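Record 1 of the preview.
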Amino acid sequence: MISRATVLICRFLLGHKVLGDFLGVFVGPVASYNLSKEDTFNDFKENARDNFTVGYQFGAQLEIKKLLLNARYEGAFSKDSRNFINKVSGDEIRYDNRPNLFMVGVGYKF
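->
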């Protein structure tokens, strides 16, 4: 099964350096908008009811010389409501949740 990301995500994060350049923390809202109205996945057709959802994100970043390490958690304030309808049988599966995410990142500062 091949699927494409069709969601626009905007993060507005406010950060503060806690221990100089070594440690920083950040927090802020995350808004996402479902760009596709109806997608098809194998035998299922997706019908998104609420195209706009709002969540939150917080995390920390370490800077060790030129190496950057960060970790962040993203949760939801609003739900993501979608129906997946089987094109063959007509059965409907309701999906009503925005996933919580834990992300880690590694970077290099040029």
